[in-house]
Amino acid sequence: MGHSDQSHGVDFVEVQATEEFKNLRKTHRSFVFPVAIAFLLWYFLYVLLADYAHDFMSTKVFGSITLGLILGLLQFVTTFGITAWYVSYANRRIDPKAVVIRERLEAELAESDTQKEGV
Amino acid sequence: MNPTTVLHQLAPFATLGEQTKSTSWINMLIFGAFIAITMVVVFRASRNNKTAADYYAAGRSFSGGQNGTAIAGDYLSAASFLGICGAIAINGYDGFLYSIGFLVAWLVALLLVAELLRNTGKFTMADVLSFRLKQRPVRIAAAITTLVVCFFYLLAQMAGAGGLVSLLLGLDSHDKLGQSVVITVVGALMILYVLVGGMKGTTWVQIIKACLLIAGAAVMTVIVLGMHGFNFSTLLDAAVTKAGDGGAALLNPGKAYGATGTSRLDFISLALALVLGTAALPHVLMRFYTVPTAKEARRSVVWAIWLIGIFYLFTLVLGYGAAALVGKEEILGAPGGVNAAAPLLAFVIGGPVLLGFISAVAFATILAVVAGLTITAAASFAHDIYANVIAKGKANPATEVKVARRTVVVIGIVAIGGGILANGQNVAFLVALAFAVAASANLPTILFSLFWKRFTTKGALWSMYGGLAAAIVLIAFSPVVSGNAKAMIPGASFDWFPLANPGLISIPFAFFLGWLGTVLDKSTEDPATQAEMEVRSLTGVGAEKASVH
Questions:
Q1: Which of B277, B319, B323, B335 has its CB 3.0 to 4.6 Å from that of B166, i.e. a possible disulfide?
Q2: Can you give the pLDDT at residue B21?
Q3: What is the pLDDT of residue B279?
């Protein structure tokens, strides 16, 4: 697995140290970490309100629709929203950078394969 | 015209549970049709099962949309459908909290796990966890946690089958022998699906089932809302009225978990296990290997999130619909108890045909989820334990698949036996335990090995075994197992741990052990494989390709 034959033509430590790769990693992490922390905080805020603030959550907003129900449905809305946001970010910002590195490395791998066959 | 009154006029003295029995032949007919169609699909799909990648990962040939639908099929188990509808019908708002946890959890998979896992692994969760650590010990640990989580989840599905079967086939709810026969038939069918169809056949069964389930729930939602003037607030009022005295509590939080300080803590524990468990369920993780690229893995999660989210919105309507149109007494009095809410609602709003359709779909759900769990457990045993540990990576792929097929039969028999023994246990609850075990034993190691450069083998082993042991021990000494009338062993009392769900303690404990094991580890891991894993996970270089036929 970690030592698959097709990967031997590339020095991954060197690739990992390049600015290009560090930039890709930063683009990925600077999105996923803050967003993950944010949605977990929002989820647990909701859980704690539902668990300990019964009167607040039972406030009727219109008809029999309570504040608790609206906040619960907002969890659905934010989940759908974050999904769409991440997909658009990944398509615009992450994928193009990953493709450049992948194509370069795959070309290097193909080259080292032909060299091996030549020997 | 109100269909409830019509039914009550037709059979004024029969309860709904009894009325449904007279129509059980329709259920069997529809379920038979489902089996026949899926069998044809499975046999057609099995023609291309040549290599291990075909058998475990369907040749990585599914599209994101197909895989996303299959994930929804896998995830919307009997616990999600029957369990959540029932929980909302009986406990109102507190039942809704389950669906929120189950849905929000997908963001962990989307942001942190799915694509990186697809880029680094091959067939199983252990492939990723052992990528840059010491192969043998980490692989064995990951295979053990996979098997334990699959076992809990399998038990939950099979346990629900008994009660459901009595309702659907008109068996007496005390006819344990009849139920056992049906559980055995379900298990045998599932073994056949997985044996013949492999991952490809299993995936198609899940896709068909997901479409039927979501369509059925959509139709019921429209009917229920239509009966209340398409006004959700009117539906809530109807549920409150039907429940009689104290019915207003259905709309407010706290009905199930608000009683004491301990039950409130238990709720936090459950919420934590639900949100962190999904991205660590081995049968969900394995689905990401059935698509050709990381981008398709991302697309699968997006599809899954939309389908699952919309489905949970339906269950909110259906749960309150069952409270309004069927009522608590009728539900709890029917065979299958809480789990009967959705089928009884189908009977009230659509008569025997809709009941037959919904029941057959619920049954198919159990079958499909059990198939997905079985192939995951079999792949983990054959690929991780047999091929990489026993045969030390030198197993011939054909032998590996043969071992996987034999494992399928063994797991099928264990599932049938466990299902008969656990018959009647609370389904949604057992699934929540599987989530807690997955989040404790697997998630810390998955996240550390993907994102923490310094992480070592010792940290992984401490976290996996420690998290697994903590979760299991706390469950064993919880009120679920002993100490009260509803417990598994009602006579004994060794329930010194007060919470029903162990997540609140065991999940942070497993993260802590992963960190502690690593900082105390004097040796470090090979920086070259760490670099390879990180580069591969983010760029997709050298990721397993789709097989070409």
A1: B335
A2: 64
A3: 92
**Residue to substitute from A21, A47, A85, interface B, most B β-carbons within 10 A:** A47
Q: What is the pLDDT of residue B56?
A: 84
Q: What is the pLDDT of residue A4?
A: 45
Touching check for B56 and chain A: CB below 8 Å? Answer: no
B389 and chain A in contact, CB less than 8 A: no
Neighbour tally for B497: CB within 10 Å: 17
| Contact yes or no for B40/B193 (Cβ under 8 A) | no
Neighboring chain B residues of A102 at a CB cutoff of 8 Å: 539-541
pLDDT given at position A73: 96
Report the b/e string of A22-40 with b at 16+ CB within 10 A: eebeebbeebbeebbeebb
CA distance B339 to B435: 20
Cross-strand bridge partners of residue A66:
A60
Residues of chain A with pLDDT under 70: 1-8, 115-119
Tokens 């067939």: give the residue.
Answer: B123
**What percentage of chain B exceeds 90 in pLDDT?**
43
Low-confidence ranges of chain B (pLDDT < 50): 1-13
Question: Contact A13/B271, CB-based, under 8 Å?
Answer: no
Of B103, B106, B539, the CB nearest to A101: B539
Q: Set out the domains of chain B in order of their start, with CATH numbers.
A: 17-41+56-539 (1.20.1730.10)
Residue B111 touches partner A, C-beta closer than 8 Å: yes
In contact, B345 and B85? CB cutoff 8 Å: yes
Q: What pLDDT does B515 receive?
A: 97
- Out of B131, B527, B541, name the one closest to residue A2 (CB): B131
Q: What does the alpha-carbon distance between residue B448 and residue B464 come to, in Å, rounded to a whole number?
A: 12
Radius of gyration in angstroms for the set of CA atoms belonging to chain B, rounded to a whole number: 23
Quote the pLDDT of residue B9.
Answer: 38
Q: Which residue of B has its CA nearest to A67?
A: B252
Q: What is the DSSP string of B455-519?
A: --HHHHHHHHHHHHHHHHHHHHTSTTTBSSTTSSBTT-----S--S--HHHHHHHHHHHHHHHHH
Task: Please give, rounded to a whole number of angstroms, the shortest distance from the CA of B376 to a CA of chain A.
Answer: 19
- Please count the residues of chain A: 119
Say how far apart CA B439 and CA B505 lie, in whole Å: 11
Task: For chain A, report the end-to-end CA distance as a whole number of angstroms.
Answer: 26
What is the complex's ipTM, to 2 decimals?
0.91
Q: Is B295 on the interface with A (CB under 8 A)?
A: yes
CA dihedral B48, B52, B53, B54 (to 10 degrees): 20
